[in-house]
Amino acid sequence: MKMHDLVLTGTVVTTAAVLSDGWIAIDDGRISRFGQGTPPQAAKTEDHGNALLLPGAIDPQVHSRSQKGQEDFIWTTRSAAAGGVTTIADMPYDDGFLVCTADNLRLKAREAGEQARVDFALWGTIAPHDGPRHIPDMAKAGACAFKFSTFGTDPVRFPRIPADLLAACFAAVARCGLAAGVHNEHDEMVRANIRRVEEEGITDWRAHGLSRPALSEALATSEIYELAAATGCSAHVVHASIERGYELCAAYRRQGFDTTIEACIHYLTLDEENDVARLGGKAKINPPIRPRREVEGIWAHLVAGNVTVVSTDHVSWSEERKTNPNMLKNASGAPSLEVIYPLFLSELSRRHLSPVLAARLLAENPARLFRLTSRKGGIAIGRDADITVARRESWTYDPRASGNSFATWSPYEGRTLDWRIAATYLRGTQVFDGTQVLAAPGHGQFVTPEGNG
User: Fold this and answer.
1) Cα-based distances in Å from 186 to 283, 317, 378
2) pLDDT given for residue 1 in this prediction
């Protein structure tokens, strides 16, 4: 019988089952076998007891370079390794550098490759004046998907793409066989509500939710999916904070369209009336964190199978950009790469839900979204041995304590969690030992969709 390079033992979590007394055999950095009972022989066996052996997470929405002088890939991928995330998909809206051409994408891939400790994929986008003309070349250069926005956060760095141009871009993306992800807020409605809130003099924590009502998100989501239906494009809503968004996605899927939808971890774990009221700017995210009734509605859709992926939408703004007493003056977004797996597993166990959902929503489905399933996405023979080990433990999160997070603040600071990452393996090599990130910059690889790159 073959002597394997490495065998891990523990409770194996696949997308279909939880295998107690399980094992995973690894050779040449890939999974060669897995099962239950007596493990096979190996040059090295690492026993993780009753801990969960989960597929390494693929975070579909990370912003490594939104603010110059902050974390960059050196820190996002360090946080990722510590959080059980073995692949990040980085967004194209870098500070001062829009990833809107094949040359820009290749340059970012080279620079990220020098820094990354875990594997990474890269989103592409367009500059509005270029239209869709660079999309085919970016796909050939290895873009994992294309990101657009129905809301204009910044005319250069994060521009709005109007409906007619968005349709042309969707058609181009469809011809490349990739997905189009869209920031889902209705520009005119949001701007009208921002003006109304400012005219009424509301500046506290309530201002953000009032300025971006649920209807603005539902309208944008409807537009995205209708454009997908007209163009044959795989359309992905990148962050849905309202249950209506999941209803719309499911409805279009029932009609035969390839629509997908993403629940960021903050929409599953934070609510407006408690957390935003307490945290102010540190809980300002677009679209906003909603009232508890929406949170519970999203969980109902998750259980029903209407959530495609769970992400972080991670960004580590400097603290001064998140603590303005005028809520609307704060930057939008929050760091969470280091705790996404512990947060999600804790919520699942508290709701008596299976960790199989974590394997699907944090690994398998993101791999499908980005066309990476030949290498990534779950515990399956032939795939990269990207394994996250999670042990049951009650602990309190402190972003300053680990040394693996660039940001020293977090909306989850002081939160009690039920699961801790005990180890992370990337392509069969341990990159985190439960305390220290072991992978050096440059260990991560640029991963591209099947048939591209």
Assistant:
1) 21, 25, 35
2) 61
